[in-house]
Structure formats: C-alpha cells, structure tokens
Design goal:
The chain is mostly helical. It has a domain at 8-66 and 102-140: Transcription Regulator spoIIAA, CATH 3.30.750. It has five helices and two strands, in the order αβαβααα. The protein has helices spanning 13-25, 45-55, 73-80, 107-121, 124-147, and strands spanning 31-36, 60-65. Strands 1-2 form a two-stranded parallel ribbon. α2 links the parallel β1 and β2 (60-65). α2 packs parallel to α4 (107-121). The chain is elongated, with a radius of gyration of 18 Å. The protein starts with 12 loop residues before the first helix and ends with a helix.
Length: 148
C-alpha cells in the first residue's frame, strides 16, 4: 500500500504517485483507501493524507479507522499491550469508531482528525476538483497519443 511520509515505505512514494497517474491516464479511476490510526501516525497524518489525495489527484477516496476486531492477532496484541479501550465491544468495530489507544495520538485526536479529513475530502468542491482533474488528465493523455 501507499504509506504516509512518516512510514518507511515513503521512500517509494514517488513511484506510486507516477504509477497512479499513469493508471488514471488510461481511464481507470483509482479509489485510494487509507487506514488512519496506525502506529506511527500523528495528528499531522490527516493533512498528509488530504494533500496526497489531492496532489495526484485520486478520483475516489475512502478513509477508515484502524479497527481491532475481537479474535484477530491485532486485537490480541492490543489487549496484551493494554490498548483496547473496552474489551469485547463489537459495537465499536465499525471502521469509524476508535476501540483502542493509538500510539501517536489520543483517541480523541484520531476521532477529530477523521472528522476533519472527512469534511475536507468529501466536501463538494474537493470531490469535484478530484473528478475534474481525472477527466482533464484523461483528455490530455488521449491528445498526446493522437499526436504521436
């Protein structure tokens, strides 16, 4: 996957960006899916995701909160580490609620960051910008091929 700049995979982010642009230039829309709240994420991560999604720009974007589902290795690890907020609460396993203690921020920071990112990524102007940029890139790539 494509990781935030704070992650070790960020060294290859430029190649990912170019690959995504080339994919979309061929008319294939990309839905960028981002999981927020990973170890190493901080409150700054939300702005990084927003800027990344708009810089390509991705046609579609999906954001979710890292969720530790009971019975999974992640849940077991967080339970051992004392990071599960309310053990056994399946109703908090929605991909949008925070059911664990993140490492780089408070649970409230994660919730507020998700609300901020949701407002900005999914507002009408940002969505229209991403869609318009996708179709503009598609038109440019077809003109280039027609002239070649």
């Amino acid at each position: 996957g494509i990781e935030a700049r704070s992650n070790f995979k960020a060294r290859t982010a430029g190649r990912y960006v170019e690959a995504l642009r080339r994919i979309q230039a061929h008319g294939v829309s990309v839905n960028g899916c981002f999981i927020l709240g990973l170890d190493g994420h901080t409150p700054e991560t939300f702005r990084e995701v927003f800027e990344f999604a708009c810089s390509i720009p991705l046609y579609d974007v999906q954001i979710t909160v890292l969720t530790a589902f009971p019975g999974t290795p992640l849940y077991d690890r967080f339970l051992r580490e004392g990071r599960i907020l309310e053990p056994g609460r399946w109703d908090l396993c929605t991909l949008f609620d925070v059911n664990y203690l993140p490492q780089g921020m408070l649970p409230q920071d994660l919730q507020e960051g998700m609300r901020w990112l949701t407002r900005h990524l999914y507002d009408d102007a940002c969505t229209q910008y991403r869609r318009d940029a996708f179709f503009a890139g598609l038109r440019r790539s077809r003109r280039i091929r027609a002239c070649a």
